[in-house]
Structure formats: structure tokens, C-alpha cells
Amino acid sequence: MQDILNFGRRLRGERKRLGLTQADFARIGGVSRTTQVLYEQSVHVPSMEYLSRIVQRGADFRFLVLGEHAPDQGGRICLEPQVLDKALALADQLSRDDRGHLYEADIRHTIVKAVLIAVAEKSEADIAWPELRRQLNEEIFHEEKNAG
Predict the structure, then answer these.
(1) Residue 44 burial (10 A CB sphere; 0-12, 13-18, 19+)
(2) pTM for this one?
(3) Within a 13 Å sphere around the CA of 31, how many CA atoms are in the beta-carbon half?
(4) I want to staple 79 with a disulfide (CB 3.0 to 4.6 A). Which of 6, 25, 84, 87 is the partner?
(5) φ/ψ of residue 93, rounded to 5
(6) For residue 77, how many other CB atoms are within 10 A of its CB?
(7) Which of 48, 70, 92 is the last residue of a domain?
(8) Residues 32, 11 within the same domain
(9) Residue 136: in which H helix or E strand, if any?
(10) 123 against 131, higher pLDDT
(11) Helix or strand or coil: residue 77?
(12) Range of 91's domain?
């Protein structure tokens, strides 16, 4: 749960680093200013589409999600655009139960982290998406069952 609370602080920090107001960041992310405030207060967790939009405008995805900068990349995670799109789509699929309902925020955060770590620094040709989905599904939900 601490990661989720820190996410809001990291999001606010990234917005300020980019010199943008909450209204600017909300507009970029396609949400209302009120929603942006709720994200920064860690009341709500942003969608994958929102994250994709702000990353395209310069937000550090690795820092937002993992809470760490990659020193050799200047704080950026290296993903080809098509890999990022597929990684976010995979994270979204894994973040839903059999009825399509989203899991709780802390579970979704774990899923996004796992997907990003799995695809970091790889090219589209190097990723077997169906196998990655199966593997992550087993790893993530095996851990959840053992923890619960």
C-alpha cells in the first residue's frame, strides 16, 4: 500500500519537474483537474491510457511506476512505442478479474511493475507476448494466493 501512496507524490514531482500545472497535466492525460488532484493525493489510481499520455509528454514512466531512476538512461525506461502500448494493454488485461472488474490498486500496481520489468530494454521481436502473459499470470497470482 505504501507504493500506492508514494505514487501520488511521484506523480506530483514529475508534473512539477516538467513545469506543468495540475490543469496542464490533466489536459495532457485526458482527465479533469479534480481527477488529477485525486491522483496526486493517491485517492485514485490513473488508467493506463492516462499514463501513456503523460509519458509521451516527458513523464518518467520508470520512476512513476517503479519509484526508481535508471542512472544510465537518465531516469527513462527504454521501450519501443509498440512495446509500451502492448505492455500497457497486457497490464490492463492482467488487472481485471474474469468478469472484467479491476483489481484493487495495490494489485494493479504490482502487475504494472511486473510487466515493465519483464519487457524493459527488449525489442518487439524479443518478446513472446502469449508466453509472457501466461508466465506473469502464474507468478503474480501465485504470489497473491500464497500471501492471502
Answers:
(1) middle
(2) 0.55
(3) 23
(4) 84
(5) -60, -45
(6) 23
(7) 70
(8) yes
(9) helix 129-147
(10) 131
(11) coil
(12) 78-148
